[in-house]
Amino acid sequence: MSTPAEALLPSEAPFWKRALYWITHLLQTQWRRLVLYVPFAWLLFFFLAPFFFVLKISLAETTIASPPYTPMIEWIDEGVMHVRLVIDNFAYLWEDDLYVNTYLNSIKISSISTILCLLIGYPIAYAIVRSNHTTKHILLMLIILPFWTSFLLRVYAWMGILADQGLINDFIKWLGFEPIRLLYTHTAVYIGIVYTYVPFMILPLYANMEKLDWELLEAAADLGAKPMTTFLTVTLPMTAPGILAGSLLVFIPATGEYVIPDLLGGGNVLMIGRVLYNEFNANIDWPVASAVAIALLLVLVLPMMLYQHVQGKETEGK
Amino acid sequence: MAAAPDYTDRPWMDPDAEPFIKVQSVSKHFGDFTAVDSVDLEIFKGELFCLLGASGCGKSTLLRMLAGFETPSSGSIVIDGQNMNDVPPYERPVNMMFQSYALFPHMTVEKNVAYGLRRDGVAGDEIRQRVEDMLSMVELSQFARRKPHQLSGGQKQRVALARSLIKQPKVLLLDEPLGALDKRLRDQTQYELMNIQERLGVTFVVVTHDQEEAMTLSTRIAIMDAGRFMQIGTPTEIYEFPNSRVVANFIGNANMFAGRIIENGPDHVIVESKQPDCEFYIDHGMSIPEGTKVWVALRPEKVHISKEPAGDGKTNTIKGMVHDIGYLGGSSTYRVQIGGGELVEITSPNQQRPKEAKPPIDWDEEVYLSWEPSSSVVLTK
User: Fold this and answer.
1) Cβ contact A219–B90 (<8 Å)
2) Domains and CATH numbers, chain B
3) CB-CB under 8 Å, B98 with A215
4) What's the pLDDT at B356?
5) How many structural domains are present in chain A?
6) DSSP B6
7) How many Å apart are CA B5 and CA A308, to the nearest integer?
8) A29 and A150 housed in the same domain
9) B318: CB partners within 8 A, 6+ apart
10) CATH number at residue A233
């Protein structure tokens, strides 16, 4: 089969003319695919490439050099390529209890935080959707407002609130009770994570509930369902995609969270983000740090794939 | 002794019948807006009652108050002897078929239909049997495992009907039940709906804005406008004896003439009209004093059109000129310009094919319109 340019323009036509014609033709017929290729190329370059760098480092050994790891490919003599892949780093993660425990602890903290965010976020999203036009916009604005201040600043503010001489303890003392320790505890980390990530739960839930057909709830009531039954049999299944989306948006970044456990948990709360930071900066062990990052990615990719799978089924059903 | 009259098909005529649904001076306000304005209504068991009106007239609000989705601002609703004011929707003996059908998208047809029974804690075997029976009644048995989005509009409508009927409600509320269907399907479904209603003996309350639908379906119609009832009656009563100009114009077409009562005898009334210059002789007495300003409504199909003058040329007849002819096949619609320039509409059946000997009425021809003494209706408002 000849290309359209050859078919329609004589081959003696100038090259630029044929090229231009060909490009126009490509844009006209293949634009759907081209539109897909642009974000694909973006992801390939800015996401996949750095990932492969990290993967490469995770398979190297640490040395005192710059950069502080051994190269993957070395040329010995003429034409002999020496590829070195060290899986010791991953084995080390598995053998040392510190890492396994930190992963488990991170997942535990982010799981509990996700559930707390859901319990807090669901009624808020519901209330926003059910409120009138003006109130709705004000409430949504209030949810988004904190993003306009630096995240770091807001965590520091929480330190001030939770500290031994902080706002909460001042109040407790004013009431005449013994002050309690809040800062540098698990509680402080939970407060910080839930506070930070609750909007990420509310917004997808809001988007999902906004599309909910409220007549379905009336239909359920009409058929004899009490409010609680209506919620369980209609509202909850209809908002499940929103719950899943919100939960993943909270769970994934919360697992790798570094700033909150570092500032609010101090040395008492082990989370994988802090370990990662220490390996890179304190130990200057880039290969182990990279292995920690890759392992974290695997831990997080699994639920993502689960989500994709469920979503795929969902869209198939529609 | 005269035999007791039979009220089976018209319970509203029976002085001893107890109404099944009683709406007593019910109002509903939304802020400053009055959706339903102190209405009274009695609906009897087994009726197919239509609330007819343009959108925003309050008919849907009234229906939603019957279902329990809205509470009356004042007044009370009694269904089967029980005051419904404090009864939530899930405890009312009524079910509703929604205009949008409101089928649960995440459930199969089967599960949708079974939903109401499951809420009542009916045993699994019985649910299965009743769902099966109901689906076969609406001819959807082979679609039991489908999800709503896999059904056509007509099929969804039948699922909605099955789901609202399965609990054998005392009253079924239908909100524009045929609104989302195309014309052909609507005509067919209309009769199916009547058959089902007759077979099950359930009281139907239907909200619609389609007068043709209301006329075909209902035992009685309530015409609503601005939150009030304009007239309540059988389709025939409302069509033949509208009580106001609004009703006469809302149901079908009517030619309206302003006039004054000049003679009020025991068995007849004469209305004199200046525009057109004619006298309307009506063959029944009325309790309206002579001299009262009234309107006379004349249905298009009750007027005869002819090229020959009829009667005395003044009583129940007008001379005019054909302005427009609309040939509809089975009938023709003529618009005839009369004295003052206004147009009178006449519908005349085409019983015979046009013949050479008797050519049909043509444009710009002079014609005479006439009608029977019983055909016109005198309206005071």
Assistant:
1) no
2) 14-246 (3.40.50.300), 253-379 (2.40.50.140)
3) yes
4) 58
5) 2
6) P
7) 71
8) no
9) B276, B278, B338, B339, B344, B368, B369, B370
10) 1.10.3720.10
**Cross-chain residue pair B100–A215, CB shorter than 8 Å:** yes
B309 touches chain A (CB under 8 A): no
CA-based nearest residue in chain A for residue B173: A222
Of B255, B256, B296, residue with least CA distance to B279 = B296
Distance from CA of B231 to the nearest CA of A (A): 30
Q: B208 in contact with A at a CB cutoff of 8 Å?
A: no
- Residue B247's identity, in one-letter code, is V
Residue type, B329: G
Mean confidence (pLDDT) of chain B:
87
For B30, the token pair is 């939304």
Q: Which two tokens stand for residue B31?
A: 């802020």
Pair of tokens at residue A57: 């480092």
Residue A114 and residue A15 share a domain: no
Q: Give 10-residue mean pLDDT values along chain B (381 residues).
A: 68 81 93 92 91 90 94 94 92 93 95 95 93 91 94 92 92 89 82 86 91 87 91 91 87 85 83 81 79 86 84 79 86 85 85 67 83 85 78
Query: Quick one: tokens of B116?
Result: 């109401």
Helix (H, G, I), strand (E, B) or coil at B68: coil
Examine the domain organization and report whether A140 and A252 are in the same domain: yes
Query: Do the chains contact at A215 and B105, CB–CB below 8 Å?
Result: no
Rounded CA gap, B235 and B220, in Å?
A: 6
Chain B, window 110-139: residues with a beta carbon less than 8 angstroms from a chain A beta carbon: 115-116, 119-120
Closest CA to A256 of A291, A290, A297: A297
Check whether residue A132 and residue A8 sit in a common domain.
Answer: no
What single-letter DSSP state applies at residue B148?
G
Cα angle at B108 between B102 and B114, to 5 degrees? 75
The tokens describing B360, both together, are: 């049909």
For chain B, the C-alpha Rg in angstroms (whole number) is 25
The single-letter code of the amino acid at B150 is Q
Residue A170 DSSP SS3:
helix
State the Cα–Cα distance between residues B206 and B131, nearest whole angstrom.
24
| Domain encompassing residue A304 | 102-317
* B96–A contact, CB cutoff 8 A: yes
Q: Do A215 and B163 touch (CB under 8 A)?
A: no
- Is the CB of B105 inside 8 Å of chain A's CB atoms? yes
Name the residue facing B116 among A223, A226, A318 (closest C-beta): A223
Q: How far is CA A289 from CA A55, A108, A260, A293, in A?
A: 11, 21, 19, 6
How many whole angstroms separate alpha carbon A86 and alpha carbon A288? 11
Please state, in angstroms and rounded to a whole number, the distance separating the CA atoms of residues B31 and B65: 17
- Give the pLDDT score at A33: 80
- A105 phi and psi angles, rounded to 5 deg: -65, -40
What tens digit of pLDDT does each residue of B87-105 get?
999 999 999 999 999 999 9
Min Cα distance A118 → chain B (Å) is 22
Low-confidence stretches of chain A (pLDDT beneath 50):
1-2, 5, 318
Distance CA A283, CA B120 (A): 66
Based on the domain organization, do A131 and A11 belong to the same domain?
A: no
Shared-domain flag, residues A36 and A118: no
Helices (H), strands (E): how many in chain A? 15, 2
